[in-house]
Amino acid sequence: MMKVGIFSSAYREDWGQMADLENTNLSTESNKDAKEDKLTVLIADDHELLSHALSSALNSYGVEAFTAKSFQEALLSIRKHKEFDMVLLDLQMPGMQGLQSIKAVVKAADASKVVLFTADVEPDFLQAALDANVWGLIPKTISLKSMVGVIKLISTGEVFLPTNGSTSVIRSVEKKNVGDFTQDEFLVLGHAANGLTNKEIAFTIGTSESRVKMLMRSVCGKVGAKNRAHAAVLCRELGIL
Q: Quick check: pTM over 0.85?
């Protein structure tokens, strides 16, 4: 059983300030994704401020986001709109009854990837959710930029699980011939592909610039790339990004 923890405080953000993100420089990122197929995400959470802020921010990053405030509303949205690529599911919103509700959402979602979106969860419960075909857990303490990277990661066919060990290998659902990438390697690769400098990546994921360089060297070695730009190109060709 995989030991599950919560991301460090370096990932925390003030969600109350995120409602105005559409007026920040985040909108510049959307131009980079304009030529790519838009991911569609349903945010099922009764915290309206958080949902609105996250929806606006994801839209700025080229991810089309929708919201639902209860278990019943989430099921209705899923059944009415089958095109969702992903469903972020809060465990505490009205109507949720533990694993039974999770299984109902997974069944209704069909090909959509259901991901738990919560502050904390017991390891045994998380394992049961994974056995019910949930695609992992995104903690609400994660930074916005990291969340976008994680959503794109899961969309490629990887289960995401935050752990106490920063180099813990994520469980692969679909092998991509890229070796065992760690969570941090995937995040660094995604940010590098989006044009962030090593310094910006280090600030975003809460680590040092030297560690970012070390992670990029590891990524390059695993895909046989000459440099970070080459790694991004190869991974796009392999469908990783």
A: no
